[in-house]
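Researcher: Sequence recovery benchmark, item below. Answer with residues only.
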């Protein structure tokens, strides 16, 4: 998203078109994960039946291929959802950096808070107070926990949302459609500020 093309339609119209594509991508990724979960569950049912047919009285009680498969499937689902959190956060950050570049606002990739502060000053608004910021922030923190603490809560996440530090995050139970919608809302609010 670097070196954006200047639009003859005005920045707000250009960014509105881009936002639709970005949110569409996030929505499709979420649906693809859900589809994978559905297919994996169907495959798992067949696997369970196959294992039960092979089970014998001499079966080692310490080896349970059904629970191993379920554990691996859950770990895979959590990684996919955690990566969706990373992608939602990156979508917002890259979008805001693109706006900063068009407006000649200084920003630093990888420093979301300071980038939001810089853009907010140029727009006369505090970005963190805009509708949708909280949902995008949750996706960002979920992604950061995945990247930096192996999918366990860190100090920042536990301090903001409760719970103990070091707990496994149940990414599969998060409200991803809401975080995508809130990210859309946040970026739409910022686009609206470009026109004012």
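Model:
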């Amino acid at each position: 998203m670097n070196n954006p093309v200047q639009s003859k339609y005005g920045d707000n119209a250009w960014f509105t078109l881009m936002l639709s594509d970005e949110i569409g991508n996030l929505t499709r990724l979420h649906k693809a994960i859900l589809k994978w979960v559905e297919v994996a569950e169907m495959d798992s049912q067949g696997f369970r039946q196959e294992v039960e047919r092979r089970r014998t009285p001499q079966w080692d009680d310490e080896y349970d291929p059904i629970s191993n498969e379920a554990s691996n499937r859950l770990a895979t689902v959590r990684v996919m959802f955690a990566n969706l959190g990373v992608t939602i956060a990156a979508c917002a950050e890259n979008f805001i950096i693109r706006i900063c570049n068009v407006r000649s606002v200084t920003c630093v990739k990888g420093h979301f808070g300071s980038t939001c502060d810089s853009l907010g000053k140029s727009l006369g608004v505090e970005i963190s107070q805009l509708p949708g910021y909280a949902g995008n922030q949750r996706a960002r923190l979920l992604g950061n926990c995945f990247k930096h603490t192996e999918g366990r809560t860190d100090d920042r996440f536990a301090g903001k949302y409760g719970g103990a530090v070091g707990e496994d995050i149940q990414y599969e139970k998060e409200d991803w459609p809401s975080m995508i919608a809130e990210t859309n809302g946040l970026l739409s609010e910022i686009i609206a500020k470009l026109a004012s």
